[in-house]
Amino acid sequence: MGRQIPESGNSSKSGLNIDKLLEKILLEAELLELKANPDREATGTIIEATLDKGRGYVATLLVENGTLRPGDLIVSGQYYGRVKALFNERNNREEEAGPSAPAVVLGLNGAPQAGEKFKIYEDESEAKSIANRRAQILREQGIRTKKHITLDEIGRRLALGSFKELKVIIKGDVDGSVEALSDSLQKLSTPEILVSVIHKGVGQINESDIVLAEASDAIVIAFNVRPSMQALKMADTAGIEIKMYSIIYNAIEEVKSAMEGMLEPKMQEKIIANVEIREVFKFDKATVAGCQVISGKIKRDSKIRLIRDGIVVYPTAEGVKAELASLKRYKDDAKDVSTGMECGLTIKNYTDIKVGDIVEAYEEEEVKRTL
Length: 371
What we know:
Layout: H1 11-14, H2 18-31, E1 43-52, E2 56-65, E3 73-76, E4 79-82, E5 85-87, E6 102-106, E7 117-121, H3 124-145, H4 151-160, E8 164-172, H5 175-186, E9 193-202, H6 207-216, E10 219-223, H7 229-238, E11 242-245, H8 248-262, E12 266-282, E13 287-299, E14 303-308, E15 311-314, E16 322-329, E17 332-333, E18 336-338, E19 342-347, E20 358-367
Parallel strand pairs: 8-9, 8-10, 10-11
Antiparallel strand pairs: 1-2, 1-7, 2-6, 3-4, 3-7, 5-6, 12-13, 12-20, 13-18, 13-19, 14-15, 14-16, 14-20, 16-17, 16-19
Helix pairs in contact: 5-8, 6-7
């Protein structure tokens, strides 16, 4: 019998070779002399952050240096707080987390962004001051980076003719999901439609989110979160749409569909008839062509082109559309003439018609555009 392959081949489930992987990691750490000092204040990186209904803001972090303990004053980005409780990766309560140890922390006053660094401070007033200063800097950066319209931008929008902007507010259960959804939606932007994420955050949808949506004419996207009762009432009163999702792909597809609905439909031509000119009769006020319909059905109100030896001779100017001045069967006006029938026609504002020319009749129809 051959060597048995573990079911699913997934080391995370079967534990296959995990011991060898750990051994190699330790060997690499020893060769590279990777060391950390456990006897100092902890520093590290935020892995994920979320808002738990029963426990408040929960941050998953990785200690890179020092030792983290309950009661430590932690600052990460614009948020701070004392560590109320510390849990390991198996959700067991711990009294400390040393270098390279993952930890789940309760006690922060907000959800830091994934990838943000954290640091321990001794003085609470200093920690609070640093967090508030960072929050102020972020607000100022947001104001400065907000795109105000310029003369060049006005010119670009006028050239496009139908520039639109879809403004979005995103609230989610975890920071990673919010960032992923925000990045994915902004990548949907096109030269004609800009997707602008004007606010994003972790936690339930509150009244301030609805006020912002109303003021900026935005839609609210909720990912695994729900609005508060007050926010829901405000949204209903103001007519603000709250879209709720649990799968990022579904949110992206619906926003994409909404953007396609914002696109101006494009006009598509459909050739409905070809008419061959057999005789030409010149009068003082008009040139009448005696014709036969060789394919399709020409209508009195059809848009037309005059083609000579495969080349369009009228109309040749961009944006100009030619029309019939008259369409007759014998001496009577006709609404349409079908394949194989003879007819007489005149072209509005054009008399240079020759035997052998082809009159191409077409219609324009609106076609829904896709991104």
